[in-house]
Amino acid sequence: MQKFELKLRQRDIPENDLLADIRNVGERLHTDSITKTNYDQYGKYGATTLLRRFGSWNKALSAAGMGINNRINIPNEELFENLANVWQTLGRQPVGKDITKSANASKFSLGTYEKRFGSWNKALVVFVQYVENPDNQAETTIDSEGAVPISGRRTPRKINWRLRATVLIRDNCICRMCGASPAKDPSVTLHIDHVVPWSKGGETVIENLQTLCSVCNIGKSDEVFD
Ligand SMILES: [Zn+2]
Predict the structure, then answer these.
(1) Last residue of a domain, one of 86, 108, 132
(2) Do 216 and 150 share a domain, yes or no?
(3) What domain range includes position 206?
(4) E strands of 82-196, at which residues?
(5) Is residue 123 within 8 Å of residue 78, measured between CB atoms?
(6) Domain count, the chain
(7) C-alpha–C-alpha distance, residues 134 and 148, integer Å
(8) What is the rounded average pLDDT of the residues 61-70?
(9) 219 C-alpha vs ligand 1 centroid, how far in Å?
(10) What confidence tier does 64 reach under pLDDT thresholds 50, 70, 90?
(11) 25, 93, 125, 182: least CB-packed within 10 angstroms?
(12) Percentage of the chain lying above the pLDDT 90 cut
């Protein structure tokens, strides 16, 4: 009944609302690969609305950051970046059972890593080799997110995920100012901070980066994400 009324209004629904609703259904069902039937049962708008807006169900899922687990040929880089994000969220090296879709910020399941690398331990070994490879660190002209350095600067302001992971692991995921870590207190969020702020000429290099908790980072600088 409600669905019929909302279908009439489909052009008015902001895309973000549609995507947020897909994610809500995913959270409710504890999966990131919800079906159209699931969505029709639990969603606010009806799967047809999403299909029309995004072209296909998979495109709708992917726009919502869901259903990624069903993708084939996910680049290793994406799997490693996700691993780094989970590591940062937990404040420690993740173990296999930490890698659960949509828990600990993970976009992929443990099975995805096991299929690709043979085992979780092997995934960790390859990850560390990849992060530590200087060829992967030296992206000073353009990083994976397309941040381009301003003229006169050697590095872009944005800290790519490999540098972030390297700094976190070097600092044992502990805030260098107050010692807080998500490993001890899950409410702690870690940031990577420029010791000399980028705005004052500090470069985005490992020597000028440190791990801070969000509280110390905001206290230190007016640039929250610096
Ligand atoms: Zn701190």
Answers:
(1) 132
(2) yes
(3) 134-220
(4) 190-194
(5) no
(6) 3
(7) 19
(8) 72
(9) 9
(10) confident
(11) 125
(12) 45
